[in-house]
Amino acid sequence: MALGAVLPPEAHAASVDDAVAELQRDWEVIRYQTPAAERERRFEALAAKAHRVSETFAQRAEPLVWEGIIVSSWAGEKGGLGALSLVKQAKGLYEQAMGIDARALDGSAYNSLGVLYYKVPGWPVGFGDKKKARELLLKALEINPQGIDPNFFYGEFLLETNEPQQALVYLERALHAPSRPGRQIADAGRREEVRALIDKARARLQ
Asked: Residue 13 pLDDT more than 60?
């Protein structure tokens, strides 16, 4: 019997929120507090856990977004051509989430999919597409204009497309973005990444 059939709607929602919050906490500990040599193995294990959550709450977008983020992070640690199958898997998860609720988690699927489009190689190796990336990242900013992640990733995108002056605008917004409840580790780690990119952008302008 499906879990949703035996739980009242409010309990089901709370369970989804709890499960997603646990995935978030696990991800940020691996991403920001785990030695590099251990991250690939731990992201692989977390991806399996996230998949179970996605299957349990099959009609909700949030677990799919987080499964995609975790699989993307696993791909980043794996690197090379061996990571391509993982990024394609993550792409499918984001698209599936957007088909359910594209605005879930403040539009995180748009943001995360946009990141894949500018980080993955283009045809014939991968599906990378800078124009598509820009469209998706701007859509994420439209939904969550003050968020640390959409401003960070659009700033990073602009820096990678040789627009350092414009990149600084979004990176400064990311640096001063409101803190997210319960996301202290992720916010602190992201702000360190923001500062590094600000330094890089300023160096490009000298």
From this structure: no
Nearest one of 97, 161, 159, 85 to 174, comparing CA atoms: 159
Q: Which of 136, 161, 177 corresponds to the end of one domain?
A: 136
The residue range of the domain holding 84 is: 1-136
pLDDT in tens, 129-160: 999 999 999 999 999 999 999 999 999 999 99
Distance of alpha carbon 74 from alpha carbon 139, whole angstroms: 25
Interior CA angle at 121 toward 42 and 119, to 5°? Answer: 55
**Run of H or E including 7:** none
Residues near 164 by beta carbon (within 8 Å), at least 6 away in sequence = 158, 200, 201, 202, 204, 205
Q: What's the half-sphere exposure (Cβ side, CA atoms, 13 Å) at 18?
A: 7
This prediction's pTM = 0.91
Residues 102 and 54 in one domain: yes
Residue with tokens 């998860």: 93
